């Protein structure tokens, strides 16, 4: 997994309506050596129906997806304060990824076609309409048409209330940001309802 290895390519996509102005400094601070893309309309997460980021898909040299829709934090993180905090991430994802890069289809972490297919969340008609509404909201916001932008943004959340991506994107435009009290409350509600905020990793933890 060396930078520049032609047999392994990382495509890192920032899902942010703020574009390069917001995502660029983050990539710069990380001294990123991989391919970086800024996706202002969340086209990638819509295509793979990722509920939250960071999530990933592993694609082999034949273009076949061998893992999809998993939280990709490279280590355990803790967020919050003494009153309220959450722990997220794991220490098993990166070793598994390295194993796949080294062994390819022989890696124990490669999933069957049936498993991958079963892990793809199908987009309902309402969710597809939510994606279109989200892009319209971004377009109107970009042109300073605030009222129309808010209309389509509210429609987005009505059509797809399950999307943490959309919810957190809106929080980035608020004073508290995407990891404040509103986010913590929403995450707690999501998990209390036994929903997969991130799909559980099919790996030894």
Description:
- Helices cover 42% and strands 15% of the residues.
- The chain contains 8 helices and 6 strands.
- Helix 5 packs antiparallel against helix 6.
- Strand 5 and strand 6 form a beta hairpin.
- The two termini are 22 Å apart.
- The strands form 3 sheets. A two-stranded parallel ribbon has the order 1-2.
- The chain has a domain of 112 residues.
- It is globular and about 55 Å long.
- With 205 residues, the chain is α+β, with helices and mostly antiparallel strands.
Task: Name the strands of the widest sheet in spatial order.
Answer: 1-2
Oligomer: single chain
Shape by Cα distribution: globular
Radius of gyration: 18 Å
Mean pLDDT, as a whole number?
84
Helix content: 40-55%
Beta-strand percent range: 5-15%
Ranges with pLDDT <50 over ≥5 residues? Answer: none
Tell how many strands the DSSP assignment holds.
6
Series of secondary-structure elements, N-terminal to C-terminal: EHEHEEEEHHHHHH
Q: Which structural category do the helix and sheet elements fall into?
A: alpha+beta
**Biggest pleated-sheet summary:** 2 strands, parallel
Distance between the termini: 22 Å
Compute the number of helices.
Answer: 8
